[in-house]
Amino acid sequence: MDIEKISNSFLGKLNPRFLSWAFNHLRAIPAVRKRIEKEFDSLLKDIEQQVKPYRGEFPSYAKLPEKGIGRAQILKEMKALKEREESRWKNGFASGAVYHGDEEHIRFLNEVYALNSQTNPLHSDIWPSIPKYEGEIVSMTAKMLGAGKKTINGEVADKVCGVVSSGGTESILLAMKTYRDWARDKKGITRPEMVVPVTAHAAFDKAAQYFKIKIRHIPVDENYRADLAAAAKAITRNTIVLVGSAPSFAHGMIDPIEELSELARERGIGFHTDACLGGFVLPWAEKLGYHVPLFDFRLPGVTSISADTHKYGYAAKGTSVILYRNPELRRYQYFKATDWPGGLYFSPTFAGSRPGALSAACWAAMLSIGEEGYMESTRKILETAEKIKKAIKEMPDLFILGDPLWVIAFGSRTLDIYRVMECMGKKNWSLNGLHKPSCVHLCITLRHTQPGVAERFISDLQSAVDHVKQHPQEKGTLAPVYGLAATIPIRTVVGDLLERYLDALYKV
Description:
Radius of gyration: 24 Å
Number of helices: 17
Number of strands: 13
Structural class: alpha/beta
CATH topology of the domain at 115-366: Aspartate Aminotransferase, domain 2
CATH superfamily of the domain at 115-366: Type I PLP-dependent aspartate aminotransferase-like (Major domain)
Shape: globular
Low-confidence stretches: 1-12
Strand order of the largest sheet: 1-7-6-5-4-2-3
Mean pLDDT: 90
């Protein structure tokens, strides 16, 4: 494709920022813009088929029906859509996405949700049960992550607090907004900066964009962990927070949190541990005897932690916890309006009205599982991960990036790894394609611990590798799109493609 060829030409060796600037000016020329749109149209045909697989099989509703459709008919249609191909996660074909998925557990959460479907924590006077649930969710999560324990310097982390958010992204956004406002108030910083490993979640880039915080990305070492020396060098007088992952989404590696957080403490800045993925796994992995470096409030330099209850906390989708070392820091997160004609208005998170039923379901999930349940789930996940890692290491065409516990990223020095991923997709597997370097990962959940699932993954992966080796000229359909996004230096092109993908999701 023409766009992809650019990346291998002389232009592909120029500074990416210059290329983006030049591209923005070139695409203003009608002939160039027409050619680019033609290229995108070709790519988007495959993308639209992926995101709208039901097109032509089910009716579309671009406007309200003149008369309401019967509830029975609506339920019938929704069930048909669900059964069409949205249930493959039940058999362990998805990477991450659904972390528990047991039918009995789902029924229990659904029953809890139904009991609380009308609740809204914005109106705590009407539904005082929801603040009870949320306060206890925060407390239970905090205790799991070092609250009340002695830090390595002998102090006790006895003031840890937090709030319940809608997910990991909101938890991260809230924390970064909090550090921005704290630094402005306490240190007079008006041009805030954050120091973030390149492997940290994209939510930190979103926070930087939303809150006008300059983001300084630091590299990772050969094991895909944040480079400590680079972190020290990146900190300036405008730095408000340093970030580390436990583990990173992409490669499943735990950054050197102890060293990074101590560096932050010495420099008088905040340190955020992003444990959205690992917060409900690592504490139990440590108790099971796995090597888990310190990452929580036992480290005096850690001032906040995000942990997703809707991942390995096994709550319904839509809850996470953001924790702070003390209430003074948390207060910078709150919103208060004291002069509004509508009365006194205040909220702990970005949303005003929130679904209290999700908090109730989260509370119920945590209580029903308990420490023993989380420990057993973690044991199953880590044992399954060991089996899969061993098998991948025995495949000469593949290699595992770093030494992860249960989020297994693998690449190839001999094959197009995105074609391997596409072959796995044809076998029903939904894996995550990653960039820089080009690789794919499988995030192990309880769905993969079912009998035979790990063996099926290993067999299908070997079959996919063999197919790609035997058909070197085959291009595939989506593999070129991943290859383009991974290699082309003009990031504006990739950004435009992502915008069109989002447009396609909302297309009726």
